[in-house]
Backbone:
């Protein structure tokens, strides 16, 4: 296990459950590993069933309590089925992390209606209806719950079409608005909701980008490196932990300083 998490006690999520969407790759997968290493019971959800089998199996072999559920978050029936699985298999749902998303990089005149529907179906509607399903269960749970939605620095800066386009950036700005809006509406209901704004992170989402462009991106960041999935998982652990018990409706920039420029 990576040193990144040594700040957190080994049992700090013992007895707690977490549902993670987009858990078969990148930050979602690393977040599943991080929660499992701290004693949580983890539900890994993704549309990539091969990845779920492989990485869920690896975690189970290491002794972690891990479930895997196939879901397409752009399909409301599939989201309902994911929550039915949680209802049937977990005592209650304590934490939700929404990582599932697609990135697109089309120039303005290449983006048609179908493109926006596809991106927003996954990134925006998928996030909202996953949050809705979890929040419904958490408000009925006497111990409440924590929600972290992974947005993006592109939701604040915008996307110019080179690595992220307008449709993607707008979906992430919308994700930030979902977090603020739900935080307002659930005030006083024992459910904390926050956003994470990752900066450019070296994950499979960017596997198509050439190394020379990654080097340029890294060179432009104040920290002079791209983020890693474990940087993001550590921030998510923090937001779900008791150490963040007074952090509410916030967006944590874990971005190597990209917002700072
Ligand atoms: N990598 C970056 O530089 C970066 C920067 C800012 C924000 N983010 C955000 O971080 C989150 C995680 O990104 P990542 O870099 O780990 O990406 P990734 O591509 O490695 O992982 C995304 C996962 O989401 C899953 N997914 C996609 N569509 C889905 C759907 N319809 N239903 C269910 N699962 C679906 C994929 O199968 C994949 O496993 C995303 O929300 C992304 O937008 C990434």
Residues:
């Amino acid at each position: 296990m990576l040193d990144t998490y040594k700040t957190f006690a080994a049992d700090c999520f013992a007895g707690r459950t977490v549902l993670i969407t987009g858990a078969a790759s990148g930050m979602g997968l690393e977040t599943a590993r991080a929660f499992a290493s701290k004693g949580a019971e983890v539900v890994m959800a993704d549309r990539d069933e091969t990845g779920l089998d492989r990485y869920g199996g690896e975690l189970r072999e290491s002794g972690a309590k891990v479930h895997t559920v196939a879901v397409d978050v752009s399909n409301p029936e599939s989201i309902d089925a994911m929550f039915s699985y949680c209802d049937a298999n977990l005592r209650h749902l304590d934490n939700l992390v929404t990582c599932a998303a697609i990135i697109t990089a089309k120039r303005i005149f290449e983006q048609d209606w179908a493109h926006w529907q596809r991106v927003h179906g996954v990134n925006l509607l998928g996030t909202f209806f996953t949050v809705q399903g979890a929040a419904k269960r958490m408000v009925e749970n006497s111990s409440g719950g924590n929600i972290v939605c992974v947005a993006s620095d592109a939701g604040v800066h915008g996307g110019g079409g080179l690595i992220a386009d307008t449709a993607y950036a707008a979906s992430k700005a919308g994700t930030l608005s979902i977090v603020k809006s739900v935080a307002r509406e659930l005030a006083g209901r024992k459910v904390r909701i926050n956003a994470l704004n990752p900066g450019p992170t070296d994950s499979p989402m960017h596997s198509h980008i050439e190394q020379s462009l990654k080097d340029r991106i890294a060179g432009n960041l104040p920290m002079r490196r791209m983020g890693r999935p474990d940087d993001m998982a550590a921030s998510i652990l923090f937001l779900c932990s008791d150490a963040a018990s007074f952090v509410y409706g916030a967006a944590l920039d874990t971005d190597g300083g990209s917002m700072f420029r």
Summary: The mean pLDDT is 96.
